[in-house]
Structures are given as C-alpha cells and as structure tokens.
C-alpha cells in the first residue's frame, strides 16, 4: 500500500544550523499520526518543508506516490489536497471570519461549491456563523482555533497538517480540539499532527514519531510509544 | 469663511491625486515588501503616454486616460519583471536602491528626450468654471477630483470585495499562510504592480490635463508626498492612506491660503515628524515588514 505522504531522509538547515537531519516519516490514508518532540526538535520545520514554505537541503517528500513536493511551490502543494492548521492559528486578523474561510477556498474556482463548503463549516461551527462578519483577530483563542480548522477544512483536503493545535488554549478547549480532530479523521481525512501535549496526542493517534534534535529517535504504534518508560519520563510527566 | 471653503475644496482636489498615487505605492509595499521609488516615475511615464496619445491618437479625454493607464501599466509590468522580481525576498534596501536607480534613469531619460522643462499638454478639457455659493471650481479640477474618487472607489472595491483583492490583503498580512492556502503570490504581486501603475497613469493624465503641462520631473513631488502619506497613515488600511492623502491636500491648501505657498511643500514633512513621534506605526497601524 502506497503511503499518502512519504518523507524520506529529510534534511533542513537554517543557514549553517541543522534543524532536521535525515528524518523519515509517512502517513497512510485515514490515519492520524503525531510527531512529538521538545521545542526546537524540528517538528514545525518538517511541516513547513512538506508545505513548500521551507526549502529542504536533502531528502524526498512524495504525496500520493506520484507528486514530488520538493519540486512544487506552496500554492501547488495546497492544490493537491494538503491543508494546514498553523502553530498559533495565524489567521488573517484584519479580515473577517467569512473572508478567512473564503480564502480557504481560494484554489476552488467553482464559487458555488466553495460557498457550499463554507455553509457546511458554519453548520458545524455555529459560533462562527454568529461571528462571520467579525474580524478574526478579535476572537477568543478557542474561536480562532475553530476558524483555523474550518479554514483548512473548507478546501476539502485529503491530508491535514496540524501544528501544535493545543498551543495557548484553555484545557477544556484543548479537549474540544482533540475531539474535533477525531471527527475530522472520521470524515476520511488523514491528519499529521505536531504536538507537545503528548498525553492527549498519543491517546488520539494511530502512530507516533519522537523527534530529538532533528532526528526521529522512536516510531511506532501510538499506544506502544506511550507505554515506553523513556517517553513517560520525558513527555508524560514521569513513570505512571 | 469663503477663503477657508475655497482652500478646503482646492485641498481635496490635490489631495485626491496624492491619494491615488499613495494607495498604489502602499499596495506595492504591503504586498511585495518593496519600497518602489520608481512608482512616481511610472506616474510620469503615464503622463507622457497620455501626452503622446492626446497628440497622435485622439483628443478624447477618456481615450487618453485609457491609453495613459495602459502605458503606465506596461511600464509597471516591465519594472516588475526586470527589476522587482529578481530582487524579491532580498533586503528591502536592495529593491529600494534598484527602484531608485530606475527612477533616476527614467527621469533623466525623459529629460533627454523631451527636455528638462515642462511641455504643453493637449487641451483635453474645457476651461469653464462652476460657481457654488462663491466657491469656484474649474471644469478640469472637477474632472480631476471625480476621476480620482472613481479610481479610489474602484481600488477599494477591488481589495474589499473581490477574490484577488482578498488574496492581496491576505498576502499583505501573512504571505506564507496565503501561499499555503493556494494563493499564487507571484501572480498577485504582478497584478498589484500593474494595477498600482495603471492607477498612477490615470492620475497622471488627469493632472496633465488639469495643469496643461507635463514634465520629466513631475513624479518627484507626487512620489515624495505619497511616500510620506503611506508612512503617516501606516499600510494596514488602504482607506486610511486615502484619508491621510486628502487631509494632506487640505492642510497644504490652508497653509498656502493663510500662511505662505512657499511653506506648503514642507507641510507633509512636518506631518510626518509629528505623527511618527507619537505613532511610529502610522495613524492606522502597519503590517510588520
């Protein structure tokens, strides 16, 4: 079976500083996979390299077995069906909620279909419907995360890249976000998530990677990774 | 009182031209992160394209406006392709110096062709004046004002209500995120430079018809003031840029009417110092460069 996304021996440097060194990850259709790691481990850099926002020095990134993402520019990567929920939401704060969602459908030239998808998002997130004409920058953190997720989903992606979706959110909002990730996955969308909230991410994911200083040091079924003493020690607050 | 009203009207008319040039300047800066010092000379090229059109093609004001805009648009496209695009992503100073070099070449090239002194512009509009309760507005002034307002309204519609306009604002705020959501940043950048140039071309023909002359160095004054307007307003809201440009025009006219015309060109710089001292990001805020 061909992976939906296959990253092989990826190396990325910022100037002379290596951020990712020979990392290999993959995700199959219908899966949730999580990349765990401390700050600076290179998790977000992998996401940016997949999106074409960060140039990789070596390695291969293939989507659906056919597309070499390293040869594509970010807007072309998106058009293959890869959407992004960035770290810290990164909404267009001076644009309204509706405008943010419309930009999520920018690549879709069928306006009627795009508007239908936006309507579906408003049904899923009634709070956003109420705030559709409000500037995105004026929303609460939880509402902004809803917009960020809805903006990614309106394009009808096959793969969703989520960068620290729980960052800066209240614990009850984090629970909602993780429940939403499960729902998104149930819709048939594969999710590759970068997360520091290891406990909840491991409970959700099918497969996990541990990243240290740009290298994958562990990978395996999420439940097995969660049971490892070294992982409990570092990510789950000590031995259970 | 009558003098005050007359000066306000005069100021709004000149300010509306500043607004058109300044919005173009600001659009290019916010989308491409390029201080395009050649923009005022695209304005100048638009004026001379209009002059050529008025001399050799037609005396219709509308035809000359369209050809002036097209001339400026083509000049903008060439500038984007040959100078701005190769330097995208480099230090902002690099494009600033490159476009400044283009500006010097264009001004002196045109001075070489047409001479350094102003040359007469085809008479595209009548000289009649309207009287409104003692305030006099010339037909040319009225046309200049109406055209500027129309261009500003169209620019505002474009950025607020169209798909590409939304993408323009998205790039202005977060270019990487826009690209990752399917926006081809290069295409929007090119469209932005061409639109800004066409706007400058329309304003330039309108100014040429208003004052009856064209000069190789006409862009200098409009360019500097537009740059100041962008800094004073900040580049977050194009409508803020428009408001500050109109305000600058009115202030200049009041200084001319009540103090001295020799001080009017200094108003912009007093305004710049005063505003940036208290609000370094401009009156309406700026996106991070």
Explain the overall architecture:
The complex is a heterodimer of chains A (240) and B (289). Chain A is an alpha/beta fold. Chain A is 38% helix and 26% strand. Chain A has a 6-stranded mixed sheet, with helices on both faces. Chain A has a 4-stranded antiparallel sheet with strand order 2-1-4-5, covered by helices on one side. The longest helix of chain A has 16 residues, at 171-186. Chain B has one domain. A two-stranded antiparallel sheet of chain B has the order 1-4. Chain B has a two-stranded antiparallel ribbon with strand order 2-3. In chain B, a hairpin with a 2-residue loop joins strand 2 and strand 3 (135-138). In chain B, helix 1 (2-32) crosses helix 9 (218-233). The A-B interface holds A 51-53, 73-75, 77-79, 83-84, 86, 90, 92-95, 99, 102-104, 106-107, 151, 155 and B 163, 166-167, 169-170, 173-174, 176-185, 236-237.
In a few lines, what is going on in this structure?
The complex is a heterodimer of chains A (240) and B (289). Chain A is an alpha/beta fold.
